[in-house]
Amino acid sequence: MKRTALFVVLGFLFVFLLSNSFGFELRESLNAAFDANGELTAWGIEKVNEINSVSGSIPDEMRAIFGDERINIAVEAENGEEILGCVILRDGKIIEAKKAFLSNPTINARTTEGTVKEIAESESQVLEMQKALNDGRITYEPVGVVATIKVTVIKILNSIFSFFTGMASLIWH
Questions:
Q1: Domain assignment present for 2
Q2: Which domain holds residue 87?
Q3: What pLDDT is attached to residue 116?
Q4: pLDDT reading at 145 higher than 80
């Protein structure tokens, strides 16, 4: 987690952590995490705190640039239904998550339940998530000029990270 500047990952980590809690029953975990009004339950808050405890390892420079985002997340369920949610990040930590879309996001992200399942069941979730970002199974688009610049930087850094990760795996294997 230290090496990636993809703060969209924090939003998806929330979904993946929820998914793992119920042996990948996305709907069950979302129902446990959010009440009828789409607000976090005590259990959902506990999951957010687990993710936030990891986010402290993100370098300060990256957190300063990319740590304040409002991300809409759409997950296409296997039955065709679209599951909508959002996370608001401040200083690289999730400060709010809802089972609804924001009217003023800085990033819109999209994936499928199958991709969420693959990542949740992976031995290296961050690496699998990075692969999904690279091959288009997870997409994200900035909203506004500032977000567009940030996302362009994120994509460049992701390409550099992917290159060095690939080189390292060739050298060490």
A1: no
A2: 8-172
A3: 84
A4: no
